[in-house]
Amino acid sequence: MSVKDTAKSTRDALQHGIYCVINPFVRLLIKCGVTPNMVTTIGMLGQVAGAALLIRAGFVAGRTGMVPYNLVTLAGIVIIAFSLFDMLDGQVARLGNMASKFGAMYDSVLDRYCELISLGGVAYYFMQFGELWPALITYMAVIGSLLVSYVRARAEGLGIECKVGFMQRPERVVVTCIGVIATGIAGECGAEWANWILIIAMTVIAVFANMTAAARIQHCRRAMQQ
Predict the structure, then answer these.
(1) Is the dihedral of CA 121, 177, 40, 112 positive or negative?
(2) Has this prediction a pTM greater than 0.70?
């Protein structure tokens, strides 16, 4: 089995395990009349709250010189918690027979908003320390994240399946959340290098997201030449 097949089977197994855990809660939501679009909207609002906590932490740090790392940790927890709503809305749609074309589009659009809002919060946080290069790295992560999604959407519009590449949205969300939470915990423990954790996380996304976008462009070029 190739590395690609192994990664796919591992992801599928992990996804199946998560669904087994959340399905009872999903059925409860359906009984309460909750729609997939409501779940999607709640997820985005949660991401906004997480980004707001990061912005608040950066604002306080910029004004006082003291970083409230407890807010950074909480921001990461909030972001990853509400990222799970991205799985919930799909399950609510499937188990509740409420899937629709508009719902799929709405989910995709809000996914982009969530990611841009989260990374925007990270960029603002960095900018409050007076060093622009970490914010520029985060900006490159934003560019890569957008292009990964855009190339796939454009390819599928041309009838080409395009899911290649390593740094897809779930990986980007996990790297971002781990980076934010680890930064907050390290900072609370007094580590002066705490922000480097988040800088490294953003660098990983910036490099591999843009590599994924490039790989998808190459994949489409080969598909069109066949």
Answers:
(1) positive
(2) yes
